[in-house]
methylated-DNA--[protein]-cysteine S-methyltransferase (freshwater metagenome), 164 residues
Amino acid sequence: MACRTIGSPIGNLILVATEEGLSGIGWNADIAGHPGGARRSADAHLDQTELELGEYFAGFRSAFTVTLDRRARSGFRGEVLDMLETVPFGTTVSYTELAHMTGRPRAARAVGSAMATNPIAIIVPCHRVLPAGGGPGRYAGGTTAKELLLRLESGTVSRREVAR
């Protein structure tokens, strides 16, 4: 396992990777990761993630290609995270809509729980999920970070905001 902290317009991000791929992006040192593995392979995944996040924040990337370590995904939570990856750049869905997409229309609360435990923020785009009643909803990186990510994807963020 390898870890790296990088600066971003939404604060310092902690990247975690294994030999299998990227296993975590978050704001806290306790984000999910898997112990062990080949350090050199893990570092290559971190290099790729740092490059792609830099391009994303600069407005030059709308899809990520870094390999993800999905071993921690299981059950309904895994289904939700898999479905979340199909939500296109620049669009949003509600928790209820995402529950419908998984085939469990009454599971909006469970979808919310899956979002709260998403180990790979930004790349697995939980920021694209909003409450049906309006507003940005909660986000591990804070409301300001979520709003900036949504504005970045809609093309309404200023260059000054992402240059921080």
In short: The chain has six helices and five strands.
